[in-house]
Amino acid sequence: PPSPQDNADAQKTAFLLRKQWTLYSVTPLYRFSNAHLKHYAQLLSAFIAAEKQKGLAVEVGVELDIKVAVSSIPDLKGSDRDQDAILVQLSLRSPASRKNSEEKLVWSGCFCCVSGDHLSENLPEDFTCLPLFLANGAESYTSVVGRWFQKTFDCCFRRLAISPLNLSWMAAMWTGCQVDKTTSAMELVFSAPCLPYPLDISYAIHPEDAKALWDTVQKTPGEITQEEVDVFMDCLYSHFHRHFKIHLSATKLVKVSTAIASAHCDGIIKFLQSKYLAGVLMLLTELAISQIQ
Amino acid sequence: MQRRRSSETLKKPPQVHHKNQTDLSAWRKGKRTDPEKSVQRHQSPNDQESDSEQDSLEEALSYFEQVQDRISLKKNNVLQKHLTTVESIALQRGLPPEGFDVLLKVALSGKLADTVNTRLLKSLIPASVIPETSVVSAVSWLCVSKCSGNIQLLFLRWLITMFDFIDHKEELHALYGFFFSFLQDEKMCPYVCHLLYLLTRKESVKPFRIRRLLDLQVKMGMQSHLQALLSLYKLFCPELVTITLPGKMKTYFKNSEGPWKAAINTVRRRNQASSPVFQPLLLGPAPPQSRKRKWNTQLMIPASSTNRNNLEEDREKNCVKLYSRDESFPVEQLQTFSQLLQNIHHLEFPSQMGSVLTNPLLLHYMNCIKDESVYLRLYYWMGQTLQEECTWCVADNNQYEEEFRDFLETVYKTECFLQEGFSSCEEFLYKSLPLWDGVCCRSQVLRLVSWIPLSGFSEMKSHLYDPLVQLFFTSSLYFKCSVIESLKELLQNWLNWHAIHLDSESDSQVHSLNTTLSGLVNMVAELIHFVGWISTVALRLENNHTFLLYFVLDFYETVCDIYLRYNLPLLIMPPAGVFYPALLSMDSVNLNQLCYIMYRYRTNLVAAKENELSKKQMLQFKFSSQTYQEYNQYIIAMVGCLWTSSAFQKDTHPQGLRMDDELLKKTAVKEFKTSFNIVNHPAMMGYAVRFLQQAWPDDTTFNFSLIKGKRWDWYLEYLYSQDLKGLKVFIESSINRVSQASHSKAENVQV
């Protein structure tokens, strides 16, 4: 799909690229305000410190081992009706280098909403809709930050799994995208169910072959139907069956990797192309919203 | 926190106490200005005794007031005597307010030996209240440190124990800084923390104090008394300090009331328990970790805690306040209904809405405050929790069935409390019922079904009826009964909702959006037809099981009264598959219930017809003639069976009992005509036997044909006396007995 964003914003969103992000859906935040991000950072860093050393009180606003930065990324959205994305970053101040204020980024989390304004349509102003949350870093930090947000803004986090159906959509959509240098192969990973031992089948296709196949399937450029996705996948399955006598349709699609992005059914994603970042986020926002509603 | 609050209400009780306490000033007055009374008093030996006690106490007090420098206790008999007086009176009946000033002063001034001071402090038991002024002057003595460290400690412990007995606290609050400075003293620190905990208000929390406490924390490490005080500071000013309390903490302060506990109890019992009750300190420790390691597990219903999220910038001071209004009342402190009433104007919902589920006071508050965001927050939280934790929709969750069951139970209880269903719960049912096995959390799920809200758009057939029906037909008798019971409750909840909203028609915005009257009638009718259908099939599957029939008839007991009881223009007769099994039931309970139901149908139909005729109201809805016709067919069959013994000839219902005489003769039953009247009906035969036994104890032939004429009337009276009230109202209303004497010539009354 065509990206609503252009390369101009690429730098501001570059932090998302080439990292593994764990996906969550988040219900609307109650009484969240962009005007108080600095104070949220202070409160959150004190909260993290207090959680780490249970039973010891922590003063809010002093310099602590873990520095918290909360900032907004106005560029990361689909339309003006979307809320500004919020980036939370935790950095470790090593005690040795405290003077030269050397910091090491240990965890980041990003709340965003790309073309998800239908969620906020009938909501009162007190609610902020940022239904998609991406986290990169140790889960223990995700847990503390998540709990603070749940406590403070009365929201709920849920892991966002991606169903095989949605993965096949991603496979079809991303196959059709133009990439300047087609280096990496498209890879689909299938898992055979009901076996005493795990059996994964990796199916790699040359991106140009896949694109050629998709072009014969897609009727109207810029538009994809479920039927087309089914035909595309069926073609790949029958090709595989011809060679290996294995019915992939009886297995479960668990992972899709293309030059655009790679997605795992457990809800883990890696963005590879800044050009298509917004497009992928839009799809993920959609999935997150359907999990909330 | 608790103690402080209860102390605020203490200002009144003293007046109550005055009646039965030892009040020195009252006694003085009585003695000097009311000789008559004092004479009376001298007449009673008890009073005499108490008077002499008063005298000696007064003497003792004036002695202590004037006592000069260090007097040895051993050598001084006078001191010994007065000390003993004070002790014995204090421990028995408590000291009057006037006594405290003198005794505190002497105990803290260091004039006497520590043993004396200790004994004095230990006997400072109030009969009613302790004047604030005496405490303030005692604190000033404490500050000049004339007494020993042990006495200082004992005084602090006394002050903590007696805090609720002090009549006012304003001046004491002004001394907050003095107390705070005592924190430096390592021995005093725990007690000072406790005292500060009792004294702290929002305005006492200052950044420099927080820093001092944090310094102390660095110096002394993790100390429970510091934790308690700091978490109170956090409660008032979360923007300045934060702390996570470890999970297992139970006591935060050392017990300081030891020396006085027994005496206070004695005095309190004497004063008829009207003194303040000590309540444990309430601090929220960290919630126990769920068995699951998932960090975002939501099945933990969060604890109520203040919403810290009302950041408001104070431009002048350029600082941030976390409470939108300074006076807002922290929900952690909300413990009683009267607190709710007192603070309802400045109460805020907790930071996590889910916590209201376990907090009845907040549910009351929620009932008063119709705020959309309240319901939205609850909607999101509950929706996510139900989906995430559902044991049959999410793989790997089945080991947590018990937890989930408790959660559903809590949700159901909340719905009952609020008398309305949650839409998140409705959506959850629609999503999860098709996957449900009918076993897991059965009673909870079925009870939740009864709170599905009445909303115009929901397609009940595909969402509820279809998935339910598959389970219904394939499950046990008991499951069938529970389904019918919960559908009865669903019907009642809908009807109640309609009746309430009919009363408050003025605020009709809510329901005119969702439902019109005809829409509502259609939904209710759909439900009734659905239950009629599954009941018919179930009765056939279960061989007209008595137990099942009982639940089915229970449902129709609500249906037959819809017009009169709930003011909804709808009457639906039970299908023949329900009516005839009930009429021919082997069980008198069911037959009696059917009679009652038919009587109520009659009453409702008659009322409807009257309204129609008088045209009192413009009736949008008229019961169709078909309803009347159905009723009449049933009544003919019933009267024919029970009374006139003509059912086989007169029943006109297509599924009815009408049979040719030829056919009936082939059954070889002799008296087939009368075989279902109130004497011979299988459900009634037991009564007939008992009746014959009582009337003719010697006759063992059980000749039922004896019951006729006058005896028929006696038999009826006998039946009525056996609690068959349904039968009674039915016969009295639906059978037109030509004359009381000619018993058998009766007709059924049609509507």
Automatic annotation (TrEMBL), chain A:
<protein>
    <recommendedName>
        <fullName>Centromere protein L</fullName>
    </recommendedName>
</protein>
<dbReference type="GO" id="GO:0000775">
    <property type="term" value="C:chromosome, centromeric region"/>
</dbReference>
<keyword id="KW-0539">Nucleus</keyword>
<comment type="similarity">
    <text>Belongs to the CENP-L/IML3 family.</text>
</comment>
<dbReference type="GO" id="GO:0005634">
    <property type="term" value="C:nucleus"/>
</dbReference>
<keyword id="KW-0137">Centromere</keyword>
<keyword id="KW-0158">Chromosome</keyword>
<dbReference type="Pfam" id="PF13092">
    <property type="entry name" value="CENP-L"/>
</dbReference>
<dbReference type="InterPro" id="IPR025204">
    <property type="entry name" value="CENP-L"/>
</dbReference>
UniProtKB/TrEMBL annotation, chain B:
<dbReference type="InterPro" id="IPR012485">
    <property type="entry name" value="CENP-I"/>
</dbReference>
<protein>
    <submittedName>
        <fullName>CENPI protein</fullName>
    </submittedName>
</protein>
<feature type="compositionally biased region" description="Basic and acidic residues">
    <location>
        <begin position="1"/>
        <end position="11"/>
    </location>
</feature>
<keyword id="KW-0158">Chromosome</keyword>
<dbReference type="GO" id="GO:0005634">
    <property type="term" value="C:nucleus"/>
</dbReference>
<keyword id="KW-0539">Nucleus</keyword>
<dbReference type="GO" id="GO:0000070">
    <property type="term" value="P:mitotic sister chromatid segregation"/>
</dbReference>
<dbReference type="Pfam" id="PF07778">
    <property type="entry name" value="CENP-I"/>
</dbReference>
<dbReference type="GO" id="GO:0034080">
    <property type="term" value="P:CENP-A containing chromatin assembly"/>
</dbReference>
<comment type="similarity">
    <text>Belongs to the CENP-I/CTF3 family.</text>
</comment>
<dbReference type="GO" id="GO:0000939">
    <property type="term" value="C:inner kinetochore"/>
</dbReference>
<feature type="region of interest" description="Disordered">
    <location>
        <begin position="1"/>
        <end position="55"/>
    </location>
</feature>
<keyword id="KW-0137">Centromere</keyword>
